[in-house]
Amino acid sequence: MPDFSVVICTYNGELRLPQLLAKLRMQRAPCQAISEVTSLPNFQTAASQAATASEDSQWEVVVVDNNSRDRTAEIVRQWQADGQSATPQLWRSDIPLRYCFEPLQGLAFARRLAVRETQSPLIGFLDDDTLPDDDWVSAAIAFGQQHPEVGAYGSSISGLYEVPPPPRFHRIACCLAIIDRGDRPFCYDRERGVLPAGAGMVVRRQAWLAQVPVVPALAGVSGRSLKAKGEDVETLSYIRKTWPIWHNPQMKLAHIIPKARLEPSYLLNLFWRIGLSRYPLRKIGYSAWQWPLIAGLHFLNDFKKLLLKLLKLRQWGTVETCELSLLLGSLVSPFYHQRLPKVADLFVWKANGGSVSRFVRGRRAVSPRPRSASHLPVPEGVVEDSGIGEFESTSVGPSVSPAVVGRQPK
Question: What does the alpha-carbon distance between residue 127 and residue 69 come to, in Å, rounded to a whole number?
């Protein structure tokens, strides 16, 4: 069993995967000299002992194809074949390269499949538009082995911009997975909403299985749609209930930001969707009986923030518009999610062998919906949205009967 699994969740990634796989192929052997990080609690493993363990570690790469329509599967097969040949040209024969297919579109579903398919104690998630430094794998393994009490930890991420970003972009860069939080490791404060980016995060499998629910509240980025964005925050919010989450600056990535992602139309939609995700994410931290009061307080606080932002606005640009878009989305998030269909039934149907298209057609036949602009039919094979109405008071997630979805992993 590998000690570490690098998971790449991709949709239509035939043009992006080769560059990322090439960077992983060049990863140096797990580090033989590990910088001491004595600021973590319960520091028990000496640096020399961790170095020896890291040197002997084995790792693998798992590509999760999230219902791609291009040559993604063929590209992976080509790299696999070259890695198994007598004279490999693309892939390394000493590092397993595996392929999995997840038909339910949504990053949350792809990552859950990866957790089921891997057995490694540490799972590192890379997006197909990120490029890790040559020692990213070794730094990830070393940190996880030195500090078994940490449930998840994130990378330091720089941006590779096709065009210059708009003025004052640093204020919103973290929402595009650009993370610059210093050169020293630290533990994220549970009382604040700041968390690592999903790109480049490493999760301890034990923490995931113990804390993250089987059914996600937010399906995550689905193809080109940002409707259900926020799956990274959802996952880490569950884990941080009982496990500390850290920033590890020794894990360095570069995030490719094409011109299209810096267009005002894309950015405004992104921040609007981030704001809309606030309702299900906030509910994670409260019991069901607390939520009616808490929802009202959050609404008043969001309204206050939006009003103060407008009153203090001295200059107007793309960044300021994005910040307003996020606050407005957060304000209307409860009303938006209350009328969304549940995804739990779809997840259970798929787990029992049913097809997504049959499920969608069945829902249309049983519960026809008005064909207004906001209620168009759902394309086959695509999850329309991911809002689940209610959470229970415990950390097991949405209110879905264990008899229906199976036992929650321990």
Answer: 18
